[in-house]
Amino acid sequence: MKIAIIGYGGMGSYHAQLMKSYAESAPAYPLELAGIYDIDPARVRAAQEAGIYAFADAEQIWADKSVEAVLIATPNDVHAPYVKAAADAGKHIVSEKPIALSERQAEEMYGYAERAGVVFEVHQNRRWDEDFLTVKNIFDHPEHIGDVYRVESRVMGGNGIPGDWRKRAAQGGGMMLDWGVHLIDQMLQMVKSTVVSLYCEYSYIYGEEVEDGCRLSVTFENGVEYLIVIATDCFRSLPRWQVYGTEGTATVRDWDLSGGMTCALVKHDDNIAGIRAGNGFTRTMAPRVGATVKEKPLPAVHAEPFAFYKNFAASCAGKEERRIKKEEVLRVFRLMEAAARSAKENIVVKERI
Ligand SMILES: NC(=O)c1ccc[n+]([C@@H]2O[C@H](COP(=O)([O-])OP(=O)(O)OC[C@H]3O[C@@H](n4cnc5c(N)ncnc54)[C@H](O)[C@@H]3O)[C@@H](O)[C@H]2O)c1
Q: pTM above the 0.70 mark?
């Protein structure tokens, strides 16, 4: 199946490289890059220098019967018009996340694809991140650290908000739409329960018109507490994941799966030797000693290579169901909108989501 990429910036060019590797893996459902389209002549030149065909405009893609699919990797506000035009031209579609700027717009976009009878998929690629899959494994299997009751998911950069459009509200900028959409999607894939309340704070450290970070606390009906932290002002990061279970604690330090689990062999140690700590003495905060705990490696889960492309190409061929469901995508938007309301009004949102 031939696919064209619209928007050959950071992510569009990453897709072009990854699709090449996918094609080289001799997949059962191949994808072949037909070319790209970008409004920026410098990006067009970059593609041509990389040996990639550049379409003169989007109309040329719509008119080309050999191109069966498009991948849209433009700034967030330009996904919807391209999704509509691609659906009208009968092309299958991948849109980068976040597909839309609101739940309402996202729903409309699914409508375009449903009416045209084309596959419409969202690139929620972080469902296949190995750090996430490993934490999900810990969450799903109590033999690791018991029943998980609290999860902390953090991404912490020190580069501020990169680029231009990510700083503008009208273009769908801000860290909630950029990273929140991934981390909330991961959360909902992990915790199979209804959200009953949430509280969110946005940060504006750099004084941009959109949030450069956020802290979102979510409580689920089954009692699980989930914290999402997104920062762009941080030069020393906290671990990517900290997971608390009834029998132990797991830390996943980074995307490279460094970290480990500490499991309690004795739940309450009655013979804690206190320690000197700062200008005082404490038993409460004394570290557990060797015999009462056991260190374990993380139960690493490795992702199937190219799982996203494979599923997209197979679903266009009618051989597999799409892995990223409309209802899941719309629920992520409902949560992002509730978080934005919480941050704006400084309120706890008590809604079943
Ligand atoms: N899934 C992921 O892991 C991931 C990672 C990064 C970015 N993204 C998403 O990819 C999209 C692009 O982000 P980016 O970081 O590549 O941005 P970018 O600014 O690097 O690239 C965007 C490109 O789109 C082009 N463009 C702008 N308006 C256009 C239009 N009307 N028609 C055609 N081309 C146009 C720009 O010239 C630019 O080359 C965003 O939706 C972003 O959220 C996803």
A: yes
